[in-house]
Specification:
This is Glycosyltransferase subfamily 4-like N-terminal domain-containing protein. This protein is an alpha/beta fold. Helix content is 41%, strand content 13%. The protein has two domains: 56-273 and 459-481, Glycogen Phosphorylase B (Rossmann fold); 277-456, Rossmann fold (3-Layer(aba) Sandwich). Helix 1 (17-37) crosses helix 5 (197-209). The site of one 2-acetamido-2-deoxy-beta-D-glucopyranose has 7 residues, from helix 1 and helix 6.
Length: 482
């Protein structure tokens, strides 16, 4: 009986390089993703309020430091000299998330009296550079060269000169502004990761799934797929060269500890914050804004979305889901704040979509005040979009893609809003739930969001957590939290 004489070739070996890649990704990723979904043992997960009863060595804390209360002595117990390496320093009206983080954090620390020196690339020529020269501002060292082009060697030269004057207590780099072979030699270095390669594995999966059945895979995306796993492996190998790691979401902290194998005491979770005063709910302003942009008085519900209108922020999904939703709900409106390739398509959806283009900070404040709920359909789980914190700070509930970062740090309580899988059906289902619920209930949810956001996501909270970490690096006495 020669039943097994000639094994059949498995059907799967149709030589599609994409399926090979995806298999590869899946094989490597499933364990990682499972890890991400194991319930975390953090203190008071899902609790509304901060836990004030925790005490111990801060370096052992696996939860976000934002949950703790830090006494802000004025002036601080010690004045630190801090070096910051950032590829860019914001000079334009619409800076990226990483630059905004650097700016918000280090302006706050300088205002507290710390001596902050920022090493960054030359500003873009057409931008009018505010030479921040008052005493409580960071000192900005723009290196020479092409505008916006980061050259760490040039920045290091300036750093050395300043370090010779008086040694820096801590050095902070925004992601890999300082490469690992330099980082290796710096024991008092802190790196903040604004998105890591393991998160981009998921991003690749979601982006390919969001492709329409007859839509060809783009060459750029296809070639990026082949680099995804090597990039993760590469990161795992070089990340250990950085002495201290700050994860900007709870799930990123878990990945750094569990997958990247960085000793727990060197991984600290500090969530980004936004300026509380810039995002307060203002109903009157919201109503004025509605009238100004032409939302009719009889609108039953107003949804809002903000940010760059590009594919990987999930706009194809929202576009599709909202075109279906509006058919059955003629009094539901969508306000779109931001610009990008999807702007015109939103405009083509008719009067129920009000697409405003880019907005300045004060318009953005009015925008948040005018909506009933904020939608973020992103396909990129890297980092954590500040818009979610801004919306909650403005007293609005949020709807967002079900990513570990969002689930673990933002939508930690069902009261705060809704999560959906990043596909049209799931988003549409969530939108229908929201419509059925109505604006009154959403406004109650918004109040809980505001409470939570103002305890967790303020710029001041972020700055005091970083200050404490920097002090702890300088002098271990400060690592003890009572
Ligand atoms: C804080 O932690 C303590 C002990 O770990 C627990 O008993 C208490 O319920 C927690 N409080 C909140 C608000 O989660
Ligand atoms: C994807 O990239 C691989 C290798 O880079 C190539 O062999 C393959 O033809 C590409 N497939 C598509 C659909 O572009
Ligand atoms: C809302 O009011 C406008 C006039 O402002 C009217 O044209 C429209 O039909 C009304 N829509 C609904 C759903 O009542
Ligand atoms: C660390 O800080 C504490 C409290 O301010 C101080 O008493 C101690 O002398 C400091 N240690 C060093 C090594 O500077």
């Amino acid at each position: 009986m020669a039943l097994v004489s000639k094994p059949k070739r498995p059907v799967i070996s149709l030589q599609s390089s994409l399926s090979t890649t995806l298999c590869f990704i899946v094989v490597f990723t499933i364990p990682a993703l499972l890890l991400l979904h194991t319930p975390s043992s953090s203190v008071c997960k899902n609790s509304f309020n901060q836990n004030k009863s925790w005490s111990g060595d801060l370096r052992t804390a696996e939860f976000a430091w934002n949950r703790l209360k830090f006494n802000q002595e004025n002036p601080p117990s010690e004045t630190l000299k801090i070096a910051v390496f950032s590829r860019k320093w914001p000079t334009s009206a619409t800076p990226g998330g990483m630059e905004r983080h650097a700016h918000t954090l280090h302006t706050a620390l300088a205002r507290r009296g710390h001596q902050v020196h920022v090493f960054t690339s030359p500003p873009d020529q057409d931008e009018n550079v505010p030479r921040e020269s008052q005493s409580f501002s960071p000192v900005i060292h723009w290196h020479e060269g092409e505008p916006g082009r980061w050259r760490y060697n040039k920045a290091l030269e300036q750093y050395e000169a300043e370090n010779n004057r008086r040694e820096f207590d801590v050095i902070h780099t925004e992601s890999v502004a300082l490469p690992f072979h330099v980082a290796r030699r710096v024991p008092n270095l802190v790196v903040s990761w604004h998105g890591i390669a393991l998160e981009s594995v998921q991003s690749s999966i979601y982006q390919d799934l969001a492709r329409l059945p007859n839509e060809p895979i783009s060459p750029a995306f296809n070639s990026s797929l082949h680099g995804v796993i090597p990039k993760v492996l590469n990161e795992i190998r070089f990340f250990r060269d950085y002495a201290h790691h700050v994860a900007i979401s709870d799930s990123c902290g878990e990945m750094l500890r569990d997958v990247y194998q960085i000793p727990s005491r060197r991984v600290h979770v500090i969530v980004n914050g936004v300026n509380e005063k810039d995002f307060q709910e203002d109903l009157r302003l919201g109503n004025q804004f509605r009238a100004k942009i032409g939302v009719p008085q009889n609108a039953s519900l107003v949804l809002g979305v903000a940010g760059r209108l590009v594919k990987d922020k999930g706009h194809p999904l929202l576009y599709e889901a909202f075109s279906k939703l509006k058919e059955k709900n003629s009094d539901v409106y969508l306000i779109v704040a931001g610009s990008g390739p999807w702007l015109q398509r939103y405009r083509d959806l008719g009067p129920q979509v009000i697409a405003l283009g880019s907005m300045n900070p004060s318009e953005l404040h009015a925008f948040y005040s005018s909506i009933d709920i904020f939608v973020n359909p992103t396909l990129r789980p890297q980092g954590l979009d500040l818009t979610l914190m801004e919306a909650m700070m403005s007293g609005k509930p949020v709807m967002a893609s079900r990513f570990p970062s969002i689930k673990g740090t933002i939508l930690v309580n069902d009261e705060f809003g809704f999560m959906f899988s990043p596909n049209v059906e799931s988003l549409l289902e969530a939108l229908e739930l929201v419509v059925a619920e109505g604006s009154k209930r959403l406004s109650q949810r918004g109040k809980s969001c505001r409470d939570y956001a103002s305890s967790m996501f303020t710029a001041q909270k972020m700055a005091s957590a970083y200050e404490r970490l920097f002090l702890c690096i300088k002098n271990e006495t400060f690592c003890n939290y009572i």
